[in-house]
Amino acid sequence: MWLSGRAEAVPGSVFALMDAAKGRARAAGLSVTDLSIGSSDLPPPDAVLDVLRDATRDAGTYRYPLFSDTAPLREAAADYLRRRFGVTVNADTEVLPLIGAQEGLAHLLLAVTDPGDTLLLPDPCYPPYLGAAAVAGLNVVTLPLRPERDFLPDLESVPDSVRPRVLLLNYPNNPTSAVADAAFFREAAAWCRARGTLLVHDNPYAELTFGEYRAPGALEAGLDGVVELHSLSKTHHMGGFRVGFAAGDAGAVAALARVKGAVDFHPYLGIQRAAAHALSLPDAVGRAGAAVFEARRDALIPALRALGWEVATPQASMYAWARVPGLRDSVSFAVRAAEQTGVAVSPGAAFGAGGEGFVRFALVQPPQVLREAARLLGTVPVG
Ligand SMILES: Cc1ncc(COP(=O)(O)O)c(C=O)c1O
């Protein structure tokens, strides 16, 4: 028996159940429309792929990358933060490349907490947060995200006796697609500073914003006691490349670098070059990708409302979060829907108890496919 208590504590994933349901739908001859996973179906910008292709033919990229080799990506990240958010960071001490935001979060928790410390987490939330908390041995206290508060947590409701080591937030939000304004981040940062809590803001959807809306970042509230995780996965459609960066509080970034030093050697240099190039591209490139998701949103939301499902019009992210009237068991509904129609969505309960009654759609198919998926879901009994 080689299972540690730490490994055992990592929660199982509802996505395995969904995977099996998709398999049964295929075996029954249905064509599967998979809206259950938030992996961008768009390609990275051509110029980014060109940089990577050239790098693979440069023998200088084959060795282990050292910290000094990460300077161009750190500088590109610092430039991006300055241009996009008006935030100035020191590229040497306040930025660190990541092998994706998810890797960064898991190691950051190990770097800044001790077992038994308290982590304040939204409910619902991106499920790997719970796994990362389990690996770090943390005591999780949840903060409900409710529609009547526009899916923003009520920090004032947290009893004074709760002294979290870390507060983890994520806006534009997965799964609710809610957004937060700069004042919210200022209040959250002030709340954290007053309690000696590190504010960690997971921000992979920063550029997937619609219309005139631009998402603010948590670092706009100051770097002291704040770390933000950025990712190229959604903003530049580079999920498989596994690259992102952490930026913010120098002490927390140094702690993260220390833990990562025991675990990895930074991303492949070619991927670092591709990511640095992606971060330096004009805003228009990111806007073009975001517009594709916006058109999908515009197709899906009315189709869901026509079913009587309650859904806000997202201003950002790649999701729609719909409350289904009468839905009590979102997992069995999602499994049945996949088996009967071939349409796979994420059950709200997969994101925590606070997600029950909802389903999440990832906008990863063209508009007409999303409309047809909504129509098919309307044929599945809810109860
Ligand atoms: C909130 C959130 N954080 C992190 C990630 C993963 O980011 P990365 O690919 O950079 O690890 C996702 C992916 O769906 C996400 O939704």
UniProtKB/TrEMBL annotation:
One of its GO terms (molecular function) is transaminase activity. InterPro entries: Aminotransferase_I/II_large, LL-DAP_aminotransferase, PyrdxlP-dep_Trfase, PyrdxlP-dep_Trfase_major, PyrdxlP-dep_Trfase_small. Its cofactor is pyridoxal 5'-phosphate. Pfam families: Aminotran_1_2. CDD domains: AAT_like. It comes from the Bacteria. Keywords: Aminotransferase, Transferase. Residues 32-375 form the Aminotransferase class I/classII large domain. This is Succinyldiaminopimelate aminotransferase.
